[in-house]
Design brief:
single chain; alpha/beta; 21 helices; globular
Length: 499
């Protein structure tokens, strides 16, 4: 074993299928292979957060909280990592402080260890409370840089942000290159500077949209990155992360040898290949090859995946190239926000409206108006004054922390959802996503949901009211369950170190 192994975070249970398969992998599809994943020796597995929470209820008719619990039973030895959108939690707007704290508390209790906390605008004010809450409940805070390119973004800006995050209590720093914009030698420079000028462990995250992810990961590792993100090969590449097996093979016999077993990884890859080809083909994006135009459009993998599906649903798939070309123009108008949830949706929606309506800013959605008013935070640069005028009229933008304007939300949500909520987790689900959560909770009350404690390998559609519980496509496979040793592991393992 190398004295300085490169650690791996595998995104197969979250970002990989969010980027390539519209976040449609069910918990049941994960369960049969979970014990194998637990044997690998990853630094962590990213398995929650991002779009998974919403998609679980909206499309899969699952309880997203239950996913943590059933996977934890089968993966007692692996750190669980999630993506947390700071004050946005997992939604597309800011939530009050009491909801942020309640959410973090329950996520920690259920088994989330590492919280990758980011803000779409890199506004530290929108990350501060989430960081404080994760520290309070014993989680590992990974302060994240939403990497982007613009006239107002460079490595000096990102190092300064990382230093500020360290001062706020971050345990590690993530370079979150969600749109595959960080080229290999820039990655080397940025990671080198983070290691020398900030002094915290560095995790490097990118996508292969532009085709140079393996080179960027290699240079980041050479610069001293402690952990890199990867995805099992059968659901990797394109708009997702580079293949885990390729990274493991690249560093075999070097001072950064990962020590991971390629034979075991190959077995896991074969399983996910069958899941992808047999059960999830209709959610493929169709984006199979590298596209260096991402350096112009800056559209992240998850946004591309969902943008394709949205245009298909509107019968406007032929306008895809026009929308892509409009995205950077809207982004410039809005002060060069990094394109990551929710700003990717805000910019993307406005770009679609500009193209479909035939006139730029003829239609301005409420989210864009809220953004211009400052309700998402401080834009990196000045917003185009003409767009500000069209969006706000004579209304003045705010200058403070957006969440300071919000009233507490938990008790109000609890009262609204009433008896459909069986516990605080249900209340939180409703507070974050009222429509999908209420529909799911009503289905559960009516006995129309299928338990996820046994393997299922396909996304479940909502059954008709008279059809009874949804049927599984295969007979449930019972797995041998080991006694969880997770609590002992967590008590004895320092989160900053490797395994």
């Amino acid at each position: 074993m190398s004295a300085n192994p490169l650690q791996i975070c595998d995104t197969i249970l979250r970002d990989a299928h969010q980027s390539l398969l519209a976040t449609r992998m069910s918990t049941g599809a994960m369960l049969p292979i979970a014990e194998k994943l637990d044997q690998v020796g990853y630094w962590s597995v990213e398995m929650w957060g991002g779009a998974t929470f919403d998609s679980a209820m909206r499309f899969l008719k699952e309880n997203p909280w239950e996913r943590i619990r059933v996977l934890r039973e089968r993966m007692p030895n692996t750190r669980f990592q999630m993506l947390l959108r700071g004050q946005n939690i997992l939604g597309y707007r800011h939530y009050p402080d009491d909801l942020v704290e309640k959410f973090v508390e329950h996520a920690c209790k259920n088994g989330i260890d590492v919280f990758r906390i980011f803000d779409a605008l890199n506004d530290p004010r929108n990350m501060a409370w989430a960081i404080e809450c994760v520290k309070k409940y014993g989680g590992h805070v990974q302060g994240s840089i939403s990497y982007t390119l613009s006239p107002v973004h460079d490595n000096d800006v990102f190092v300064k942000l990382a230093q500020e995050l360290k001062g706020m209590g971050a345990d590690s720093i993530c370079v979150k290159d969600m749109a595959a914009l960080c080229t290999p030698y820039v990655a080397y420079d940025l990671v080198s500077r983070l290691k020398s000028e900030v002094g915290l462990p560095v995790q490097y995250h990118t996508h292969n949209t532009a085709g140079y992810a393996m080179a960027a990961v290699t240079k980041a590792a050479e610069a001293g990155a402690d952990v890199v993100d990867a995805a099992i090969s059968s659901i990797s590449g394109a708009t997702a992360q580079p293949p885990t097996e390729s990274i493991v093979a690249t560093f075999q016999g070097t001072e950064r040898d990962t020590g991971l077993d390629l034979a075991l990884l190959t077995e896991i890859a074969a399983y996910f290949k069958s899941i992808r080809s047999d059960h999830l083909p209709k959610f493929e994006t169709g984006l199979k090859t590298a596209d260096v135009r991402v350096l112009m459009y800056q559209v992240p993998g998850g946004m591309l995946s969902n943008l394709v599906n949205q245009l298909r649903q509107q019968g406007a798939a032929d306008r895809y190239e026009e929308v892509l070309a409009e995205v950077p123009r809207v982004r410039e108008d809005l002060g060069y926000p990094p394109l990551v949830t929710p700003t990717s949706q805000i910019v993307g929606t406005q770009a679609v409206m500009n193209v479909i309506s035939g006139a730029r800013y003829r239609l301005i959605p409420q989210e864009v108006k809220d953004y211009c008013r400052g309700l998402y935070g401080r834009p990196p640069a000045e917003i185009n004054p003409e767009v500000m005028k069209m969006a706000l009229g004579d209304q003045e933008p705010i200058t403070g922390r957006p969440a300071d304007l919000l009233e507490p939300g938990f008790e109000k949500a609890k009262e609204e959802i009433g008896s459909l909520a069986e516990n605080e987790e249900d209340v939180l689900s409703y507070a974050l996503f009222p429509g999908p959560a209420k529909e799911y909770l009503q289905m559960r009350a009516d006995g129309l949901t299928t338990p996820i404690s046994e393997p299922r390998v396909f996304p479940v559609e909502a059954p008709a009211a008279a059809s009874g519980p949804a049927k599984t496509a295969v007979a449930p496979q019972r797995l041998v369950r080991r006694q969880p040793s997770y609590s002992l592991w967590k008590a004895s393992t320092r989160m900053r170190g490797g395994r």
